[in-house]
Write a structure and sequence with these properties.
Three copies of one chain form a homotrimer.
Chain A lengths: L1 H7 L4 H17 L2 H7 L1 H14 L2 E2 L5 E2 L4 E2 L5 E3 L4 E2 L4 E2 L4 E3 L9 E2 L4 E2 L4 E3 L3 E2 L4 E2 L4 E2 L7 E4 L4 E4 L4
Helix pairs in contact in A: 1-2, 2-4
């Protein structure tokens, strides 16, 4: 998985470093009470350095498929209950989370490309290979292979997929 | 006041740490020339660590009531002349400030819940218990107990309050 | 040039520090293979401290005229191929870059004032002395001396210029 992440983030060193630390922290988080305890120093380091200082606030409980690309990691908040597919691109100043306190969070499909300054909220599903334009507010289900953009957003079928 | 802040930010350690340092820095700022001088090292530390590095750019001159919640503190800019009520929630990538250079700044009531990626600008007042949806641009007065969302924004009366 | 930057950023120490380091890093970047090699430690320092940690992600290859003002430098991404004129104001949580992968990037004229949370994308030109309102998404050419704001954006001629 790390290898796939490395290939995905070629030329994007900050992105790869983040994804690497996320994977290790997630490994500990995902291995029961023992993993959580043994990995505590690492997980605290991840939280403070990446989530607090570098402002890439993705909890290590988030389920993210291989080949995650994080471009210009900053101003980024993802809820820890989110499920994100393989080969997803996330950019800066983006939020993926709850619409209301204690509400459900988005499920992001494979190959989704999320533009900068996007806001994706609520109990929704973004289908495989969708492209979400920069600055789009999305709070409804999006079928696979669609382009979503504008405010309020419009949905267009992508023909190339 | 610190106690109220602590209760408000349970489970939100970064938020509490920020609010704590803000309160201390504001204490020095608010106690005349002597306070400003004695507190200078602390205020410089606050400015560099919180406003510059952690990107929670709230000057210590800002008047903020008790129980301030700062979720995912990052990308946050509040003008130093703002007045913010009690029990206000502020999220990431939000700006509260001037619409024009040297212009007036918003007054935020008690219990206001401000969504992420919001922009609140100008000589306006946000009434008590308002909820401002994520990504909303607000530049007009909002009466108390209203929900504001969308672009351009719409206002709905909240019935539960 | 540094003197002009200093005057432009009076009272904005963080902004001036950033612009100073950008200028030095750009100087090395702009002086052939020798400059790039001699300046490597400095350029790496600039990249890690300013682009990664402080979240002012402006590559030192960007061509920027004198008197650059960066207010509340954070959450800021500018593409390295951008050309930016003299006396331009850039604020926080703003992106100036490509609309599509490997696409062209904006050219920003002289005296342009860019509001916070703006998104300026694609093969476009922003004319001299334009004002771009906070939170505006711009992906079309804007003639000189115009105010652009709203979503979708409207263009108004500025009479004072």
């Amino acid at each position: 998985m790390i290898k796939r992440d490395f290939i995905a983030n070629r030329g994007n060193l900050k992105g790869f470093i983040f994804v690497f630390f996320f994977r290790v922290s997630h490994f500990f988080q995902d291995h029961g009470a023992l993993g959580k305890i043994v990995g505590l120093p690492f997980r605290v380091f991840y939280k403070i350095v990446f989530r607090w200082i570098l402002c890439i606030d993705i909890p290590d409980s988030t389920k993210i498929g291989e080949g995650l690309m994080v471009f210009h990691g900053m101003g980024l908040v993802v809820h820890g209950n989110c499920k994100i597919g393989n080969n997803v691109v996330i950019r800066h100043n983006t939020t993926i989370g709850q619409k209301k306190a204690n509400g459900a969070v988005p499920v992001i499909g494979n190959g989704v490309d999320i533009g900068a300054h996007s806001i994706i909220l609520g109990d929704i599903e973004i289908g495989d290979n969708c492209v979400i334009g920069a600055g789009t507010f999305v709070d409804k289900n999006i079928p696979a292979n669609c382009l979503v953009y504008g405010s309020p957003f419009v949905i267009k079928k992508l023909s190339n997929n």
